[in-house]
Specification:
This protein has 380 residues and is an alpha/beta fold. It has 13 helices and 17 strands. It holds the Pfam family FAD_binding_3.
Amino acid sequence: MPTHRIAIIGAGSGGLTCARILQQHGITAVVYDLDASRTARNQGGTLDMHPDSGQHALRAAGLWDDFLTQARPEGQQIRLAGRDGRILFDAIPPEADTAEGNPEIDRGQLRDLLLDSLKPDTVRWGHKLTRAEPFGNGTHRLHFTDGTSTDADLVIGADGAWSQVRPLLSDATPLYTGVTFVETGLHDADTRHPRLAELTGNGTMMALDDNQGFVAQRNSGGHIRVYIGMRTAQDWHQQSGLDLTDTAAVREALLKKFTGWSPDLLGFITATDTGYTNRPLFALPVPHTWTHTPGITLLGDAAHLMSPFSGMGANLAMRDGADLAHALIENPTTDDAIRAYETVLLPRSIQAAEGAAEGINSAFSPDSATQTLAHMTQHH
């Protein structure tokens, strides 16, 4: 493969997977990330690695055995509760005692696993892309906020929901899904919050009803990450005159919105150890496609941002990274590689995004508990 200057924008799981596999085959790629360091911010909750996507990518990257040392198969447990706190569905897959199925791992642990597998200085921290100038023949000059610039024969946009690379290929922008999560969490849950830990179980507990709900997700180290979900206006807090930095006021507003819900479930609001973070959920229009352009392509959320109710986001990003790396390794030219990759990427992304849109609309609907119970009963 003739390309020798590959720039990956974004040090998420997809971009790092691509860089790792390329390095295994003697191809250098430089990853540019806007964060000041690998520890600059929390990486979020837990992920279940699917056999045909995340697990496939880990095996291709030679990291499967390392992954198993940190994976939590027991995290596959899934529960559904009603607004009264009564468990309606509880599934512990047969694989929960093995590495089969979809074992869980914290996002931060997965990212560290990928970062540690790369050669020193592969990732250039503190490099936020501001613009990319096309020079013809697929070459681009990349400009960063620190005043530096570099030239690349191939630019891979792995820079997430608000990608700075995407506009070079597509006019699409993420749209608000109508659902907002307010994130909170519980430290040392089994000791400090035993009833909430029991309700959560070893994996994920969802309590859904009438366009609202709770998602409690077991992470490693006894931590439970909680998402308080509402179908609401994106500026719901502004309409209420609510200051999101006022923890007591946010708590009061959430309790008011969830009037009539079980006291146990309301504990996920009141027992927070981490405060509250407002997270409106966005997705790219479906279908999202673009016209092939030499020297540039996308992967992960930059290509197919969708709601978390697909359960596929990080898995698809890693599969994207693995597929793009292998296309670059196996094809005679960079352009051939991008075309081959996008031929697989785009239809796969559309199918997953359609499923994600259906998933969030079912989970946050007037009869969400009934729809979700029917889905779980059918698929477990």
